């Protein structure tokens, strides 16, 4: 087991470092101290072939803008907030309106775009990269001096990545954080994710309006077959459909699903051709399924041209715009309380 590190680039004269964690089976995770970006995850297929299963770039310059948040930790608030405005404890706050008049993913100066302090830690059974960031009161409009810690943990004998989040603020604030990796289990992006099989233990998904915000309506999965992933289904039928919610978000999924906590939720993704599987366990109340509906562009991932549906995000988090929907799980972090969250990605 080893942790390697090398200089990946520079931002405003500050070195960007890449860390690579490799376990005893050859499973490998590479990440940056810029945005806590996961650049690569190498995991074996059914024949033991190690290939990359997350979209990422080879050079710092390609990450310079990163408009689609590839591999990054996003916050303080993952998802959208209506008009970037909210009220907490009688005080009104205004955030950046960086997505068609709405606030998205913490704003342009959010967690995805800062250099985090990083420490490499080796224990008897694990390799850990611990990232920390101090977000001052008023950063991107959010209240409170917030101290944020993110830990990436790879076990020596298991092909899994565990991500733990810890935070504390001196003022009551909003906090909703996730990792924005795009998974493709085919290996080195040989195929799109349309024929991946996905299982989400969710009885309800959130209906969206034309601004990509939840309307507040939670729709029963059993009443909408294309949003019912409880027993596993491929993504192709939904993406190819004319379902109004799927057309609304650009021909795919970009929807929050409330997880069934009583079922001890495990999200499962499978690519039958490669034999790879991914099991996602989380303490979060929801997952946003995003099928990369808008990532096609004049760039490539290694030698593979970017195209829509080349990956999918499973953003374990709270509900978007929850501050405006009291029946959603709350994303309010009270002053001096400790926020903790954990998501584990197990590759099979």
UniProtKB/TrEMBL annotation:
Keywords: Carbohydrate metabolism, Isomerase. This is Aldose 1-epimerase. It catalyses: alpha-D-glucose = beta-D-glucose. Beta-D-galactose binds at residues 180-182, 254. The active site is at 180 (proton donor), 315 (proton acceptor). Belongs to the aldose epimerase family. The keyword Isomerase applies. One of its GO terms (biological process) is glucose metabolic process. It is an enzyme of class 5 (isomerase). InterPro entries: Ald1_epimerase_CS, Aldose_1-epimerase, Aldose_1/G6P_1-epimerase, Gal_mutarotase_sf_dom, Galactose_mutarotase-like, GH-type_carb-bd. Its EC number is 5.1.3.3. Pathway: Carbohydrate metabolism; hexose metabolism. GO terms for molecular function: aldose 1-epimerase activity; carbohydrate binding. Signal peptide: none annotated. It holds the Pfam family Aldose_epim. The lineage of its organism: Bacteria, Bacillati, Bacillota, Bacilli, Bacillales.
């Amino acid at each position: 087991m080893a942790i390697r590190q090398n200089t990946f680039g520079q931002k405003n004269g500050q070195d960007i470092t890449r860390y690579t964690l490799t376990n005893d089976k050859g499973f490998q995770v590479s990440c940056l101290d810029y945005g806590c970006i996961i650049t690569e995850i190498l995991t074996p297929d059914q024949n033991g072939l190690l290939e990359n299963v997350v979209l990422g770039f080879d050079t710092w310059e390609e990450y310079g803008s990163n408009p689609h948040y590839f591999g990054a930790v996003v916050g303080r608030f993952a998802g959208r907030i209506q008009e970037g405005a909210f009220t907490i404890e009688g005080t009104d706050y205004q955030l950046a309106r960086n997505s068609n008049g709405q606030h998205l993913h913490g704003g342009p100066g959010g967690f995805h775009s800062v250099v985090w302090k990083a420490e490499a830690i080796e224990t008897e059974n694990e390799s850990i990269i611990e990232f920390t960031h101090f977000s001052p009161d008023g950063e991107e409009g959010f209240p409170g001096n917030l101290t944020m810690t993110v830990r990436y943990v790879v076990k020596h004998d298991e092909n899994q990545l565990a991500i733990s989040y810890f935070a504390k603020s001196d003022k009551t604030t909003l906090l909703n954080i996730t990792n924005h990796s795009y998974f493709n289990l085919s290996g080195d992006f040989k195929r799109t994710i349309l024929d991946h099989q996905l299982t989400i233990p969710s009885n309800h998904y959130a209906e969206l309006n034309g601004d990509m915000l939840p309307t507040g309506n939670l729709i029963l999965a059993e009443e909408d077959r294309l949003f019912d992933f409880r027993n596993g289904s491929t993504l192709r039928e939904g993406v190819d459909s004319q379902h109004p919610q799927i057309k609304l978000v650009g021909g795919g999924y970009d929807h929050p699903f409330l997880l069934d906590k009583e079922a001890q939720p495990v999200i499962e993704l499978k690519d039958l051709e490669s034999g790879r599987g991914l099991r996602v366990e989380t303490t979060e109340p929801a997952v946003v399924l995003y099928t990369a509906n808008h990532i096609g562009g004049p760039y490539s991932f290694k030698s593979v041209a970017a195209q829509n549906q080349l990956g999918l995000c499973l953003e374990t988090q709270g509900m978007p715009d929850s501050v405006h929907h009291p029946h959603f799980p709350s994303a309010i972090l009270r002053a001096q309380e400790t926020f903790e969250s954990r998501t584990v990605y197990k590759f099979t």
